[in-house]
Amino acid sequence: MAVQALIFDVFGTLVDWRGSIARQLAPVFTAKGIGTDPAAFADAWRARYDPAMDPVREGLEAYRPLDDLHLENLRHTLLQFGLSDRFETAELDEMNRVWERLDPWEDVVPALTRLKRDYLIAPCSNGSIAMMARLATHGALPWDCVLGADIARSYKPDPEVYRAAVNALRLDAGEVVMVASHNGDLAAAAACGLKTAFVPRPGEHGPGQTSDLRAEGAWTWVAEDLVQLCDLLDGPAL
Amino acid sequence: MAVQALIFDVFGTLVDWRGSIARQLAPVFTAKGIGTDPAAFADAWRARYDPAMDPVREGLEAYRPLDDLHLENLRHTLLQFGLSDRFETAELDEMNRVWERLDPWEDVVPALTRLKRDYLIAPCSNGSIAMMARLATHGALPWDCVLGADIARSYKPDPEVYRAAVNALRLDAGEVVMVASHNGDLAAAAACGLKTAFVPRPGEHGPGQTSDLRAEGAWTWVAEDLVQLCDLLDGPAL
């Protein structure tokens, strides 16, 4: 079945959340005389991401957009670092918006621009529509539409998220490619019948990264980066 | 409250559905020796649009994407013109896709491109995400995301559609402008607290148009076209 659309994981696969958050928090911490390493803070904040989504995935809590979970996680992370009394509520809201200003890896915009000529392209992220739209403004990501958690009202890897994306595009699952730098995301998409493409992002978690350094499944395509994925898609049909 | 986003009606306000459908059906009818006026056929097809959505708006039927309603309406319209036996199922599916290839009015792309620099912009249409994404590809509409019927699972003027759009953007209603060439659409948006902007499209229904020729409510802005609306938004704050 010919590919009609590519849908993308965003955090890690397309944008450098760790580096971007560290760069944005550094001057905030400095201005307040806080000595915490901003990259370590970013890691600790992000570490609360998956556990926070679990009750929604398991149906124990109603869906809430990721922006709200990030804000709660921020409060817990500040507590963990002994910084709870250093920020006003309005400052927390502003700090939480770093997730709307994450920088794309350098191959992303050229590759998306090229893919958009032949395919529909959309994020399929756990981020909200609002977050994805503002990230696209920040990074000039030329999406055709925004899919993902908000339209499914659940979080990946719940199969409903991949199915909702395919249905919203009015395509068959085999006409859609899930693109991610995380093997678990691709395994869940493949189980729903989507095609899969892996690109490694060995810098996502900083210099000590040990996970997702290489493809760990029989993904439809494995590329060094998104520009090479464009070349593979331009090649002979599978 | 400062404007953060503009959301747009699409059929009529941004794209010339009547002219585009007539232009696309003309060669199809000619090839089959069908003498029906394609513009009259477009009018008849579109006349079934609102009645088909009513059971969903009234909660009597589950939400289905507009693509499906258009296809049913096409079958009825062919019956009405005595043309039911002239098209195979695959031809009907292809004919139904004229709704993904509607041409924008000439002010639309320049105005959206300009608005996108300062605001989030999104369609808030009764069309599906798939239809809006493909229309954007066809007409080079530079959306930040796609809102509207699919994310609300209902049809305008159900207030839920405007509320779902505002919520998806994580804004207050007063930070969002509904832009339309239909007074009824704006009345429903205003009742939900959105700001409103009217642009007339006196050619939407062809030379005999009698409805929506001018603003019929106290809309926040009334402009001659979308480029003039950009100028008004750049002017002194209200």
TrEMBL record, chains A, B:
Keywords, comma-separated and alphabetical: Hydrolase
GO molecular function: (S)-2-haloacid dehalogenase activity
Catalysed conversion reaction: an (S)-2-haloacid + H2O = a (2R)-2-hydroxycarboxylate + a halide anion + H(+)
EC number in record: 3.8.1.2
UniProt-listed InterPro entries: 2-HAD (IPR006328), HAD-like_sf (IPR036412), HAD-SF_hydro_IA (IPR006439), HAD_sf (IPR023214), PGP-like_dom2 (IPR023198), S-2-haloacid_dehalogenase (IPR051540)
Record carries keyword Ligase: no
Enzyme class: hydrolase
Cited function: Catalyzes the hydrolytic dehalogenation of small (S)-2-haloalkanoic acids to yield the corresponding (R)-2-hydroxyalkanoic acids.
Listed name of the protein: (S)-2-haloacid dehalogenase
Organism name: Oceanomicrobium pacificus
Origin organism lineage: Bacteria, Pseudomonadati, Pseudomonadota, Alphaproteobacteria, Rhodobacterales
